[in-house]
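Async update (no meeting this week)

Hi team, since we skipped the sync, here's where things stand on the single-chain job. The sequence we agreed to prioritize is pasted below, unchanged from the tracker. I ran it this morning and attached the output directly underneath so nobody has to dig for it. Comments welcome in thread, and please keep replies under the output.
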Amino acid sequence: MKDSFKTGLSATRTITVDDARAIGFMGDDCRVYATPSLVSDIEYACRDLAFAHSDKDEDSVGVNVSITHMAPTLIGMEAEITVTVSVYEKRRVVFDITAKDTLDTICKGTHERFIVDVNQTRERLKAKAAKAKALEG
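Output:
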């Protein structure tokens, strides 16, 4: 990671809640920002912040998400997701998460990621795929 990546670094991403990000199981009049979509948007916000400060061949993978989704956000509303690096130890990064729409705080929590070497990860995945294939045959 570049020296610019450190505790306290923060970024905010604005998401407009659309049909694809909304629940549908309670009918059209109850479609709101789905928790799995919120988690995905949080992961990408954290990954993008880390990636902007990554060295060549580095990226990050999520390993833990702990959030409380406290309020609904309607389709068409904007949600601001703010991610802040609270812990940075070697390859381990923990982000504090806050999300709000125009009326409410909708989410608080944490997300943990690990910084990885993309080439080493690719080789580990190839080895695992080979082991899995061997078990099939």
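Quick observations from my side:
The chain is about 25% helix and 40% strand.
Helices lie at 35-51, 118-136.
Reply here if anything looks off.
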